[in-house]
Amino acid sequence: MSITAFIISYMQYKEKGFLFNNAYLYASKKERNEMNKKPHYRQSALWVKRHSFGYRLPLTGIPQSIELE
What we know:
By secondary structure, the chain is mainly alpha-helical. The protein has four helices and no strands. 65% of the residues lie in helices and 0% in strands.
């Protein structure tokens, strides 16, 4: 799962593939053609990259939550 998220993040950074961004998804077809997609690709790349680290945390042995007594 983490590797898949990293690959998607890399593709978004290179501005390739489907654009995973709400601004793009909710825009009309005309707005999509006129839109500057670069900032949206970067935002999606950073979001996916941050979440790819979350998939790896359970494998590292770092506790997900710390209970205070």
